[in-house]
Design goal:
Layout lengths: L20 H7 L7 E5 L4 E5 L8 H4 L2 H8 L2 H7 L3
Length: 82
C-alpha cells in the first residue's frame, strides 16, 4: 500500500491530535470508532480496529509491552523448566 496523502496536525497539551477530515474519510474513521495505536522505533500508526483481526492483536504487541506483565519472579519460576 503506497502513500496516499500527507497532512499535518498539532498535538495539544493533553497529547491529543485531530485527524484531518479527508484522512478520516479515506480510512473510515468515524466518531466513536475504536482505533489501534501502534508504536514502532521510527513511527506511530493509527489503524481502525476493524482492520485488525482479533487473532492478530497479540502479534502486534511488542516483547517490551508484554514484558511489563510477564516479567515477574512467578512467571520466571513457572516457565524455567520449559
Amino acid at each position: 500500500m503506497g502513500l496516499i496523502e500527507v497532512k499535518t496536525a498539532k498535538i495539544t497539551e493533553k497529547g491529543q491530535i485531530a485527524i484531518p477530515k479527508d484522512i478520516r474519510d479515506l480510512e473510515g474513521f468515524k466518531e466513536g470508532s475504536k482505533i489501534a495505536v501502534l508504536a514502532f522505533d521510527d513511527r506511530i500508526e493509527l489503524r481502525p480496529l476493524k482492520s485488525i483481526k482479533s487473532g492478530r492483536i497479540a502479534a502486534l504487541l511488542s516483547e517490551k509491552a508484554l514484558a511489563k506483565s510477564w516479567s515477574t519472579k512467578e512467571e520466571d519460576e513457572a516457565w524455567k523448566d520449559l
